[in-house]
From TrEMBL:
Reaction(s) catalysed (UniProt annotation): Endonucleolytic cleavage to 5'-phosphomonoester
EC class of the enzyme, as a word: hydrolase
Keyword terms: Cytoplasm, Endonuclease, Hydrolase, Manganese, Metal-binding, Nuclease
InterPro entries named among the record's database cross-references: RNase_HII, RNase_HII/HIII, RNase_HII/HIII_dom, RNaseH-like_sf, RNaseH_sf
UniProt protein name: Ribonuclease HII
Function: Endonuclease that specifically degrades the RNA of RNA-DNA hybrids.
PROSITE patterns tied to this protein: RNASE_H_2
CDD domains in UniProt: RNase_HII_bacteria_HII_like (cd07182)
Pfam families for this protein: RNase_HII
Length: 199
């Protein structure tokens, strides 16, 4: 069972992102403040859960959370400010969208920039340790997946319904064959043998 909170403060928010290693689409973050009595036996790091379980958990989290927020930072901005800064920006934006200002923030991973003057703690593998980070990881992943499913309709040849996450052979083969789209991250190494051309 994951722990409810780290700081013992009432409005502690957990935040996490999804889509950091992907070749296309946004990096998406979510922030969640859970009530003191929240319990859930299935909730875990979204990477440990099947898509079916994530989809079942999403409405449970949204109904039972004290409040939640999510935000996308799109590929153009990722290319401009780099993926680490984009991930942190997405987390900041998701915290900003919460109805309640948190008085403590716990972050999955080891990189974060202070948000306003709210104290925070970065926790490596936090999505497997604390319920609010796990909840944020599930929301970030399901909101990003929903977005990728939408753009899949526009460019079905990349099969983003299946290739939403980390680079797959199928996605790279499609890039080789069809080139890239406006949704691809141009600052990423899209093909293993990619070379820079001096134009």
């Amino acid at each position: 069972m994951l722990k409810l909170n780290y700081s013992k403060l009432k409005f502690e928010c957990g935040t996490d992102e999804a889509g950091r290693g992907c070749l296309a689409g946004p990096v998406t973050a979510a922030a969640v403040i859970l009530p003191d009595n929240f319990k859930n036996k299935i909730l875990n790091d979204s990477k440990q859960l099947s898509e079916k379980k994530r989809d079942l958990l999403k409405p449970v989290i949204e109904t039972e959370a004290h409040c939640f927020g999510f935000a996308h930072v799109f590929q153009e901005e990722i290319d401009e400010i780099n993926i680490l800064n984009a991930s942190i920006l997405a987390m900041h934006k998701s915290i900003e969208s919460l109805k309640q200002t948190p008085n403590f923030i716990i972050v999955d991973g080891n990189k974060f920039k202070p948000y306003k003057n709210i104290p925070h703690e970065t926790i490596i593998k936090g999505d497997g340790k604390f319920l609010s980070i796990a909840a944020a990881s599930v929301l970030a992943k399901t909101y990003r997946d929903a977005y990728m499913n939408t753009i899949h309709e526009e460019f079905p040849m990349y099969n983003w319904k299946k290739n939403k996450g980390y680079p797959t052979k199928e996605h790279r083969e499609a890039i080789k064959k069809y080139g890239i789209t406006k949704y691809h991250r141009k600052s990423f190494r899209l093909l293993p043998e990619q070379i820079r051309l001096d134009l």
